[in-house]
Every structure is written in structure tokens, then in C-alpha cells.
Amino acid sequence: MYNFQFKNPTKILFGKGQIANLPKELSKDQKILLLYGGGSIKKNGVYTQVMQALSDYDITEFGGIEANPRYETCLKAIELIKQKKLTFILAVGGGSVIDATKFIAAGAEMSEDPWKIITEGLPVKKALPIGSVLTLSATGSEMNSFAVITKEATQEKLSFGSAKVYPQFSILDPETTFSLPKRQIANGIVDAFSHVMEQYMTYPVNAPLQDRFAEGILLTLIEEGPKTLANPEDYDSRANMMWACTMALNGLIGVGVPQDWATHGIGHELTALFEIDHARTLAVVMPGLLTHKSEQKKEKLLQYASRIWNLNEGNDEERIQNAIKRTVEFFESLEVKTKLADYDVRPEAISEIANRLDKRLGNVGLGEHRDIKKQDITKILEHAL
Amino acid sequence: MYNFQFKNPTKILFGKGQIANLPKELSKDQKILLLYGGGSIKKNGVYTQVMQALSDYDITEFGGIEANPRYETCLKAIELIKQKKLTFILAVGGGSVIDATKFIAAGAEMSEDPWKIITEGLPVKKALPIGSVLTLSATGSEMNSFAVITKEATQEKLSFGSAKVYPQFSILDPETTFSLPKRQIANGIVDAFSHVMEQYMTYPVNAPLQDRFAEGILLTLIEEGPKTLANPEDYDSRANMMWACTMALNGLIGVGVPQDWATHGIGHELTALFEIDHARTLAVVMPGLLTHKSEQKKEKLLQYASRIWNLNEGNDEERIQNAIKRTVEFFESLEVKTKLADYDVRPEAISEIANRLDKRLGNVGLGEHRDIKKQDITKILEHAL
């Protein structure tokens, strides 16, 4: 196991009716910006629950955060905060709204262009305190310090992280997610599955507990995912899926082990260029990555084959191929397609993606060995033809 | 899954050489009480590492915290803190030193007798900030808000918990534990094993992720425990055991599930009356508890039999009996004895223990159903004859 440091200060309030506890988490003098997305919270009762809980508070609303939150939209929220001297941001939504909240919280305390946090690595020295009411499980943003922001003007989708933007609290009530479209639930399962794989599917460093935690989340997603899609209002399976998604990316399973975020790296380009749902890009990229890097990832792929898919027959190569096949079948069973053609991306686009990403990466490639460059990206995507 | 709230703000610094990072965790103006136990840290190099890292700090030492930390000793440390106006307590030791640190941190900010926190449930309104350098893995105290204190005068061993006494940081360097006696390492493995069982071995509430995390820790302890006992300086196995012990009781695996702390409850009496090592009392009590409550715990015992001990043959009763047998064999393989006679406790002591505990418990029994009372305690201990 490698040396590591770990701290995650976010308080989780999990379960039915937890929105009513909002006032216990917020001091009375907070001037709150209520940030949300396309307005579904006004249809599914979440907005009403939040407003009832916060009836004694000074609240300003800002809606319209996009599915891949735009830098340009965040700037408007920052302006509003500065103008009205707001002191706390409450995100009510999914990962996109929470990601935007983190960027806005940091930007509200800066005089410079906050995009510099992302592109120039400007440190986040201060950020407004934030909290969240999660209404869509997927990204883990409710219990981590990361955010992904898209700049419309340049079609860039990029991430940043800072300990200053951990939510102080996050409320996870599975019932708030009952009315979500199946497509979004399926996306969440695939996104979380990918988060686990990116912290697990590398090479062994003798960290059996981290491996077992990762495998525990994968198995939970595989078992509970189809159940919650089939019965959206089955509280238990939705709750189990929700907790698994949070644990998939709150830092815990990644301590002391190598990580490979190539799937997200390549996937972000597909979203930036073609507006494909984030999770669907991961389902397109991951099988190709596992195939292309099967030699480097051999030991962990065999462990994955055995512990996740119970594949203990046949030679190593067969077991690995079958494990990748089972992964693809799992995604497809959730109606998440895994081929570029499924999203109308033509083969010629592959070189554009590879060129764009390679240019941005410079000398440091993707993957746990930092060796995934233009040619590899091309090959990985060709597996999705 | 039950509703839950979870927050654990402790920062973990894990791995070789992390003691050198102490100054990054402490502001320069802290007046530090360095709390330790019997002085082994002055023999194994840990004291030297800590003092070198803190050469620029104002440090007062207080040694002599006992294996089951005494209330009476803690009072002396509280006096010293008040007299010298110390502002931070750094625990350097195992669970006992860290537990004492928590009690002292709370007591130093009170005008009343701090024993009232334990016996009268007086809330901890304020506590001095604390940190730890862990030198013995077992209790998980380095990443939780609980402490167990023994009052010499009344032979009482009792616990308290408060969010105010989470360590701000804990340094876990496996190398600092290489020189420990095998007996203490074995005790740590059994203590952590018991912590997991007490959050896992109850009844199912459809919380598969918590189950798998718990099982992941149990399997890690079973696999890595014997390795680290056989090769005390094998860094990886010691590191894996250390991380497993911390994760066993930092709150995570217990979220949203019923818990049964009867083993610890009964075990504490054995320590208070007969000075038996804490972990060894758990090894004495747990098999009897599992046997006596095998009907109530049937479903989880069968899951445990299958997933932990790979016992899938035979009828339910046989599988449960075998799982308990394997548990006992595991403890014994670590040279942790499981019978009262092994510790020179005579059969007549059982009724004394049952009476004492029953009297303290009043109307509320032990266990996940709060139904373990005098007669049950007697039966559980009779299994250890």
C-alpha cells in the first residue's frame, strides 16, 4: 500500500424525511443562495420540502444549471452572490448542480477569473460554505471535493478539486429520486461503477481492504441497479444504490492505491464535442480501455473476473475477455449503449478526439502509468466502433 | 437500511515517515501536552521521531497512562493542563492513551467532575483539540469519538462518546508497531474483529454495502493477521492490519444497521474484575453470544458462514456451528484463549458478573434487541466454561 492522507469532513444525513433537518445544519443568519437545475425539483416536491424547512431563512434562488454545468452560467451566479452579499450556497440537485456550486463557492471569493483555478491551477484559498440536497445519485459530488465544469466558448470540459469545497453537509433521501427518468438512474449506476473501476482496475499494491471495499460497491451496483430500475419506488434498492454511488467517489476506496482516470478523461471529450450523457461516454470508453490495457491490468482483471463475475474457468485470456464482455452486457442491460455508432459518432471523429486530448495532455499521458497517449486513445476508441 | 447521520472529520496520515508531517498539522502557538503510556515509545524510537518533528514547540510530557486508562490518572493530567494552560493534547500510543486523551480533553474544559460525562450523561460542550500518533492498532480510537475509562475506586469500566473528541488528525505509521509484543498484535486483531462483528452480526436490514464492507474487514483480518504475527516487520501485512483496525470502528460500517455491543459490555466486566486483556475478554464472550443468540442471528450467521468461512455444505445448524467453531479456531490460532479457565476465572464468578452488569443495565438489556439480561449473560458465559 502507498502512503496516503485522507480526510472527508462532509456530514451525511441519509434517509426518509431528512430534508426537515436542514435548519439544524444552517445558522439562522445565513443568507442562502438556493442553486438548482432545470426545475424538476419544483415538480417532484423537493423544492416545497426545502422551502418549508427553510421558511425562516433569507433565500435567493438561482435555477438553470445545465446537465454539464457551464462556466458561463456559474459566472452569473457568482455575480448575484457578490451583489446580494450571500453567505451560503445550498445545492438542490444532482452532481452537475453540486459541481457548479463548488465552482461558484470558490469563484465568489476571488477577484480573478475563476477559470484560472482549472486551467492555471490557481489555488482555492477561500470558498463560501456549501451544502447539498442530492436528488440524483451518480457523481459522488455530494461527499467529495471535486467538480467538473464546461466552458461553452471553447468546448472544454475540465475538472478541479480543493479541500475548501467539500460540502459541509449533504442530505440523501432516496425518496427524492423516485420520480427520476430511468435513463438518469441507469446513468448514475454506470457513472459510479466507472468511479470504482478507475480506483481499482490498475495493478496490485497489496491493499486487500481497498480492493474488497471497491468490489463491495461493484457487487452492490450490479445487484441493486437492475432492481431499482425495475421498481423505482422500492425504497431499499434505491437507498442501497444511492449509498453505493456516494461511497464510490468519496476518496475512501482510493487511498493508498494507484488510479487510472483515463475513462473519464476520454469520456469528457465525447461529451464536450458531441453532448453525449457523461455516463454513456464511460460505457463507450471503458471496455476499450480494459481491452487495450489488458496486459498491464492483467492481475486485477483476473481478480475482477473471479470476485465480481465469478469467472473461474478457462485460461487467463478467456477469463479476462469474459469479464470485459460481462461488463459490457451489464451496461447494455441497463440500456446504456457502448458503441460510438449508438450515439451517431462517426469513425472519423476518433482522430479529432485523440488529437484534442493529446494536445491538452502534453507530455503526461493518462492512466495509472501515465502512458496513454494519442495512439492509445485512438485504439481504445476503435474498440467502440 | 435505517436512516443515519455520518460525519468523521479526523484526518489520517498513513504510512512510513508520516510523523515528520506533525508540524503541518499543528499551529506554532500550541502548548502541547504529550501523553503516553508505559514508556515503550522511549525505547522504540517513536518518542525521538515525535520530539524531532516538534523541536520548535512548547511541549509538556505526561507518561504512565495505563492499559485500561484510569480516571484517577486522567485527573492528574487535567490538573497539569489547567495549571500550565496547555492548548493541545498529542496522544502517542495505542487505544488506551488515545481514550485517556479524549477524556482529559473534555475534562480540561469542565469545572465539574468529568466522571459525570460517563455516569450522568453530562454533555461534552467543549474539549481541547487532540491529535494522535498511533503505536498499536486495535481499538479504532484514532478515528472515532469514543473512549473507555476505568475508575479504580469502584472497579468500573465504562464508555462515553462525543463529536467534540474526534482527533483532528491521527498518524498511522505501521513501522512504529514493528517492535510490539505478539500478544498485543494478536489482541488488536481480535479487538478489531469483534468491533466488526458487533456492527454486522445482528439481523438483515437490506444493507448489502455495509455488509460487504464489514466482510471485507473480517477477511482482511483473517488473511493478514497471521501474516503480520509471523513476520512482524513485513510492512505490507502490518499496514493492511492497521488500516483494517481503523476502519473497523470509525463509524462507517455501522451506518444504517442494527448493532449488538453485548460482547464488549460483558467483556468490560471481565477486565474490570479480573484484569484480563480487553481483547481476550471478547474472545471469551463472543462465541457464547453467537451460540446463545444463534436463532435471532440466524440469517446473518449463515451469511457469515458462507462469505467469511466458505461454509456452504450441511444444514443451517451445522453451518452455524461450524462458523462459530472456525471463529474460535481463528482466535486460538492467534494464541488468544477463549475459555474462562484459561484466565483462571472460576465458574462461580459468572453469577457475580451477571449480577453486576444486570444491576447497571436496569431495564434495558444488551444486544440489538436489548433483550440480553442476567440470565442470558449467565448462559453466554457458561459457554466459556
Structural summary, described in words:
2 copies of one chain form a homodimer. By secondary structure, chain A is an alpha/beta fold. The first copy, chain A, has helices spanning 22-25, 46-53, 71-84, 95-107, 115-119, 182-200, 208-230, 235-248, 262-274, 278-292, 298-307, 316-333, 349-361, 374-382, and strands at 4-14, 31-36, 58-62, 88-93, 130-134, 146-151, 156-161, 169-172. Chain A has 2 domains: 11-176, Rossmann fold (3-Layer(aba) Sandwich), CATH 3.40.50.1970; 182-382, Up-down Bundle (Dehydroquinate synthase-like, alpha domain), CATH 1.20.1090. The first copy, chain A, starts with a strand and ends with a helix. Chain A binds chain B through residues 1-18, 169, 206-209, 212-213, 215-217, 219-220, 223-224, 236, 239-240, 243-244, 247, 252, 255-256, and chain B through 1-18, 169, 206-209, 212-213, 215-217, 219-220, 223-224, 236, 239-240, 243-244, 247, 252, 255-256. Strand 1 (4-14) of chain A pairs antiparallel with strand 1 of chain B, so a sheet runs across the interface.
Number of separate strands of chain A:
8
Strand order of the largest sheet of chain A: 1-8-5-4-2-3
Global outline of chain A: globular
* Average pLDDT level of chain A: 97
Rg of chain A is 20 Å
Q: Could you state the order of secondary-structure elements of chain A as H and E?
A: EHEHEHEHHEEEEHHHHHHHHH
CATH superfamily of the largest domain in chain A: Dehydroquinate synthase-like - alpha domain
CATH topology of the largest domain in chain A, which one?
Dehydroquinate synthase-like, alpha domain
As a percent range, the share of helical residues of chain A equals 40-55%
Distinct helical segment count of chain A: 14
